[in-house]
Amino acid sequence: MEHRLTSTRPSSVVIPNTVLNDNNKSLSVKQEENKCSLAIRKRSRVPGVMITQYVKELPPGCTTPDFIRKPIALTLQEGKLAFFKAVVNGNPAPEVSWGRNKGDISNPTKYVSRYEEKNGEYILEIPNVDSDQADTYKCLVINPFGKAVCTAALNVIEVGFKKRKSGIDPEEFRKMLKKTVAKRKQKQTKEGEIDPKFWEVLLSAAKKDYECICREYGVTDFRWMLRKLNEKKKEREAEQSKYVEKVHSMKPIEVKTDGTAEFELDMKLKDPNSKILLYKDGEMLDYGDGTDDSTKHNMQKFGETYLFSIRDVGLEDAGLYQIDVEEANMFSTSLTLPDVEFTGILKDTKVVEGQDAEFECALSDPVPQITWCANDISVEHGDKYDVTVSKDKQVHKLTVKNCSKDDKGVYTAIAGLRSSQGTLVVEDDPNACGKSADELARRLAEEKDRLQRENEEAARRAQAEKDEAARKTQTERDEADRRAQAERDEVARKALEEQDEAARKAQAEQDEAARKAQEEQDEAARKAQEEQDEAARKDQAERDEAARRAKAEREAAEMMAAMAAGKGGGQNGSGGDGNEGDGTVKNRKGGDGTLRDGKGDGFDLDGSGGDGSGDKRKKRARVDELVPNSTIDHGVHFLNGLSDTAANVGKSAELSCKLSSEDKTGLWYKDGKKLDSKDGITIVKDRAHHKLIIHDCQERNAGKYKFEAEGRKSEATLTVEDPPKIDADALSKFSESVIVKVGENASFKLQFSGKEPIKIQWFKEDEELLQGHSVKIEKSSDHTRLLLTKCQRKDTGEIKIKIKNEFATIEATSKLIVLDRPTPPQGPVEIVESTLSAIEFKWRPPKDDGGCPLTNYNLERQQLGRNTWTKIGDIPGQPTYRDTNIDCGRKYCYRIRAKNSEGFSDVMTTSDIAAGILAFPGSPAPPKIVSAFKDCINLAWLPPSSTRGGSLIGYNLEKRKKGSNLWSQANPKDDPIRDKKYAVKDVIEGAEYEFRVSAINTCGPGEPSGPSECAIARDPKEPPGKVKDLRITGSSYTSLSLSWTKPTEVKGEEDEAKGYFVEIRPAEQVEWSRYNTNAVIQTSFTVVGLKSMAMYWVRVIATNEGGEGLPQSFDNYIIAMPPPVKPKFSDKKMKSFMVVKAGNTVRVSVSFEASPLPDITWLKDGVPVAKRVTITSFEKGSQLFIYTSEVSDTGLYMVNVKNMVGQDTFAIEIRVTDDPKPPGPVELEENVHGSVTLSWTPSPDEKRDNHLHYMVMKRDSVKQTWRTVVDRLFNNKFTVINILPGREYNFRVFAKNDIGLSEPSVSPVWGTTKQREKFTCSMPVLRTLDFQAAPKFIVSLKLHNAPPGYECYMSCAATGNPTPHITWYHNNVSLNTNPNYYITNVCGVCSLLILRVGPKDMGEYKVVAESPLGHDECSTKLIVKE
Asked: How far apart are CA 611 and CA 600, in angstroms?
């Protein structure tokens, strides 16, 4: 049963009584009749809303209920607040109720329904939502004329441990408590955000499934989705790269015909030990390896393929499955199991070869997609198979195209947990006899092409494998070199550590010996003192015992005299000896007195013995005398019992315990047999300590040991372990490196011992070696052997063995070195010298030396143009060579081979090297002026970047006067400058010089450098003085313009200024910051980038070659603002009156000029505007905005602009009204002949709108046209004159206001008509024309370029019948509800106005016209000029 919550609000709609009386006199009765007899269904403009109309024609002014904004679907986590909002309309005001499909919403603590009058929203709130509340919720809107219905889904994401239903089995509840559920880390979803599962599924889905997934999660903006998806893919690939090298071939989860579900992916892990985690809906799952049939979830690995399976799939297995490696997500796939039945099953099909076969099934409920299998192999839509689904998603069809013999078999359709099967039989084509030869030729040609493609593919793969093997070989050689060097470093480090460790151990042994000697002395002294104390204590105890016994005997004698015969019974000591006891006070134990099974030790304070159980026995009378004794002896007991011990074979083991008495002795037992000190067993008693020592433990010594003393027992278990062991000599021999040559076999053998079963694993470079073609592994109970056949250089590396049994694992390492020829030397060849006399060049050593050191290099030389090579011979192992036996102008080529003990490497050939060519050095950088004086100028420079093959000899320095073209050498001609600096002394005071330098090598001087900066031969200058007349020439909110006069020059004290620096300091800071890094020459400067209205200190500093002068600053701080300007409104076209239709947007913009920035105040009728009115102010204007206007917004609005200089005010009257309601019925009365007086009931809006007036129109039976009689009539009565007899008159009265006219109120017919003869006219039959047309843009948008801060007006024209709905988009975001844009649609002309264009408004603008007949769109771009 559906339960509803109803939200109501007072109706604000007034229906005229006359309308209800004339059109629906008995509304309450007819409403029920119409509900039963009439139900007109129509579509709402809001998608997903269905409207049912109860009446055939609606009364004037009345409407059926509808949604302005419907509730949207929600996906939330448990514990969140869920709420549905709806905005409705209708006249009369409708009632709104809420309900859900599968549950009750009457509980007020779980469901709260309310109406928010401010926004006109009906709200259903669900606080602390849980999974039981996930359902489809319905909103029902009803008024007397109809109803509107829409639905919205609520999806709840379960989080944490879920409460179980009552009545669960306690044992099952304990099992649940034993397991800790690991939850996958999930980002918290804020209200309104997209479900994170959407991205998880989409990241692992195929592109063809994007649309279906978006539809499932309610995502409609595909461009945004694709852009966001690419970003998330990059983020996930970055996370995956931490743990895997690649992930590919991901197959989504599918239900198989055997009732299992499988999904798989291929990935290559960087670390084989990385954890692979399986999650379902964020909860970690345990999985097996597929060998145990009872395991629900399993993972099997085949190479790089990981196959996950779920056995016995049920509805509870539906959900999102995710594969993580460590903390990175690799793959996500969603298992959906719809609960449906097959209403139409698959049927067996028989076709002729070459025809198409069809399988069709029908489902009880809509399912978007099902799984099709052919012979238990899933198939998809493609060239061979065609999968189709009906519009209602209930009929699914599979078409097998061009059937052949291979297509026959069993075809299965799987929907959720249900499946249906059909058989396909393919028969031979009876008409194929004539085609057999052609078909055979075609098949042979196809087979030939296929074989050709396979051969080409095999050749390509072989070449790729060959290239990969070569690359790996080179990589392995490089790695071997690196490891060899690392091992040498490690050996040296270990040797140093061993020396330090030996010294440390020697010192520690000395300290330990001294400490033990001191402890022995202290222990001997302590024991002697304890023995003295113990002797004194025993002597005192004996004396006290004798006195106590004497007193007890006296008291016993007195008691015996007072006792009657036969009394004393069990109260004084009756009991049993385990069955009866001896009854004496001296021995109050029952049985052996031991503590067994936690029942007691047989001690009773009342003297009863018993079997130690503490049960009361029947008392017996005693005839013997009772000697009372006040001492209760509890006997000996354990202070420390035995504890379980483990020992290795061959080692000693010790079991020990401690009794409460030092005098008591005990017996040792093993498995019930008494033990003595013999056969490797030693029994030791050290006062109260008792020890059993087994010197050489063997497996036979394992068992349960017991120590018993005075009836007290303590037991413990000795476990003898036999872990794998390796003899030290065998380990030392195994650790030695095995060195073999290429092609030889390498053998590693190791002896060990340990308890079987023993697992043995061999590794090479941490990769396990398995039995194969070149790897042979021998195993026995005491040794193992690894044989590597035909070793190659790449096999060099660490060999490790792991030996493991149930007790421990041990490892041993060795090294395999395979000797081979070295690889070729490496380029590029670097030419050190190429001169007339010699060629010197060098190269890089080989990447791999072959496992043994290089002895030398072998060189050959060939002169360019000759065919013979000349042997140079072997040179030492340094990779460099200088050839002096050359001819000038010749070019030479060299072949180099590396050599070690195994032979020569392959050849590396150099490029041609020229000898004897004049190669002058390059140009140095221009020299720098270090210092200048009147008689000396000091310079420095940098060497040239290239010496062109020869070594540098020196430099030549040249100088010239500024303006001259003649360079003269500054240094002596035959004496080059050896250093890279020089002091030029041949200068004239006051002259200005430039300098350049050229480098010299063995071939001669090179090109000179560029000229240096000009330097004047004079002594250093004095700093300039302060600038003068510092003033401000202009300012704004972000800039400040300055000007000044250059300082006065004072000879000998202040020299001429060459530039200026401007420094600023904010008023709140103490440090100055220099605005211009390079000195400006002009005496004016503009500082930009200031903060508006901030206070700054400003100063200017003059500078020259002698340094900086004193700063000149203003006397006061400066505010970053323009010159003060009194506020005034700059737009003279601003309207002072505005009429707005109720419900439309109100936007009032004003522009002004003011400095500093003014305070802006908006008032309505003298009071501040309401909070619902949005005020936006900027530097040169302000805007008032009302999103949805109401009649109450009518009034006089004033804006006041005020700053420190003055103020200005602007007023505008805004009138908010609506289409007027028509006046009441019109009554006619003739008071004067030839005239008629009309009177009517006032319009309901007359009281609320003082601008409301009336207009009267008339039509007579002769002219048949309507003519306005009177307009702007403010009363409810009017007399029409010139009424002619013999004519009929009709009158209409309209209510009229600033918006327009109301519906007319029509009067009865006035007057009579003359009788005329009947006129008959046959009218032609008119054909009904269909004027409907799909939307189409007849004028498109144009490209717009607008400067920032200006208005931008876009317009286009669209046509269509019915009138299409127009939607504007900016970068695919709808603008229809954005208050920052003014949008209109008048008679098909669609326009958009942007009041102030900014950078955020750049982009693509699109207009979409939609109607039931189709849609059209056009777009343009807005470019904002810089």
From this structure: 9
- Rounded-to-integer distance, Cα 959 and Cα 1382, Å: 74
Please give the helix or strand (H or E) that residue 488 lies within, else none: helix 436-562
- Going by their DSSP bridges, the two strands 418-427 and 908-909 should be labelled as unpaired
The β-bridge partners of 342 are: 363
Largest separation between any pair of C-alpha atoms in the chain: 164
| pLDDT higher than 80, residue 18 | no
Please choose, from the candidates 1380, 1421, 1386, 1376, the residue with its C-alpha nearest in 3D space to the C-alpha of residue 1402. 1421
Give the residues across from 870 on adjacent strands: 861
| Calpha distance 1366→1410 (Å, rounded) | 7
Q: How far apart are CA 816 and CA 1034, in angstroms?
A: 84
Higher pLDDT, 1425 or 189: 1425
970-979 — which CB contacts under 8 Å span 24+ positions?
970/995, 976/1000, 978/954
Closest residue by Cα to residue 690 from 715, 719, 661, 659: 659
Residue 1090 Cα distances to 579, 1065, 1072, 1124, angstroms? 108, 11, 15, 18
80-114 pLDDT per residue, tens: 889 899 999 999 999 999 999 878 888 888 899 99
Joined tokens for residue 446: 């196809």
Closest of 361, 340, 341, 362 to residue 349, by C-alpha: 361
1207-1217 sheet: strands from edge to edge: 1137-1141, 1207-1217, 1195-1202, 1159-1164, 1167-1168
| Segment 1278-1294, tens digit of pLDDT | 999 888 888 888 999 99
Do residues 1365 and 1383 touch, judged by C-beta distance below 8 A?
A: no
Among candidate residues 1250, 1254, 1377, the one with its CA nearest the CA of residue 1305: 1254
Per the structure block, which two tokens stand in for 1067? 């008023």
The confidence score (pLDDT) of residue 1314 equals 55
CA distance 300 to 263: 11
Are residues 243 and 326 in contact, defined by beta-carbon separation less than 8 angstroms? Answer: yes
Under 8 Å CB-to-CB from 1042, ≥6 apart: which residues? Answer: 1030, 1031, 1032, 1033, 1062, 1084, 1085, 1086, 1087, 1098, 1100
Q: Are strands 349-352 and 418-427 parallel, antiparallel or unpaired?
A: parallel
What single-letter amino acid sits at 310?
I
Local structure of 268: helix, strand or coil: strand
Instruction: State mean pLDDT over 962-987.
Output: 89
- Dihedrals φ, ψ of 216, to 5°? -65, -40
Sheet of strand 112-116: strand arrangement: 63-69, 82-91, 121-126, 112-116
**pLDDT tens column, 121-170:** 999 999 888 888 888 899 999 999 899 998 888 888 876 544 444 444 44
Output the CA torsion 928→929→931→932 (10° steps).
160
What is the rounded distance in angstroms from the CA atom of residue 1118 to the CA atom of residue 273? 69
Number of Cβ within 10 Å of residue 587's Cβ equals 17
Look at residues 1030, 1027, 1034, 1141 and name the one whose alpha carbon lies nearest to residue 1088.
Answer: 1034
Alpha-carbon torsion angle 881, 882, 885, 889, nearest 10: 110
pTM as predicted: 0.31
Predicted pLDDT at 1257: 93
Helical (H) or strand (E) element with 837: none
For residues 685-692, average pLDDT: 88
Which residue shows structure tokens 């509340």? 133
